[in-house]
């Protein structure tokens, strides 16, 4: 299904250009660099995030001995921060009229939040640092999500916004799916072999049992050689996941740089058409 969904994207381009009797979206928008950059940014952003975030909760439960409640708080600090600061990004863009450089401001937050996970993805890392890194990623991706939507609306006619936004969300869904697939591939290929290598000889026959149950992983006491092996295996696979996720950040920067720089405060005066709605 993942392969089919990705292959359908170029099929959409061909269909909309050559065969459709009634276009879903005007073809000129499918080759608009700002729209392409925004859609790719949203997809790549989710690939990067879910590559290291997919198994984060089990890591917190097993390695850092967090309760399910506290692990949920740490995990959701990301989305909470992103949502909380969303209105402030909107006010900033309203004040400056510039979404491109506001979008570029998100790069250091995500780069810092993701890159610092590499040294801090270890059992000795303070939980408070993990929360701060979640918040940094939340700030950066929140900026990208807000600016990405505005960049699309800035170059699209009022009548076409819904169609283009649907494609933008499609890329986000594909990106999340690809991220989960990468994480699953890394987890299922690295974790069992790491466990088998790290477990003491008398416990190697329990590799599959330990790999398949978080409850069993959490049942061993601190100082137990089996627990030490589990923690070391988690650190190994999570370290590789974070490095993989960080490799996508430069692509996100390239996507933002592809946007046109448009002053949205002057759109009405320049185009003379409706580019914003009316609340009251």
TrEMBL record:
Where is it chiefly localized? membrane
Q: How does it sit in the membrane?
A: Multi-pass membrane protein
One GO molecular-function entry: transmembrane transporter activity
Alphabetical list of PANTHER family matching this protein: MAJOR FACILITATOR SUPERFAMILY, TRANSPORTER, PUTATIVE (AFU_ORTHOLOGUE AFUA_7G04730)-RELATED
- The name on file for this protein is Siderophore iron transporter mirB
Gene3D superfamilies, A to Z: MFS general substrate transporter like domains
One GO term describing the cellular component: plasma membrane
> Organism's domain of life?
Eukaryota
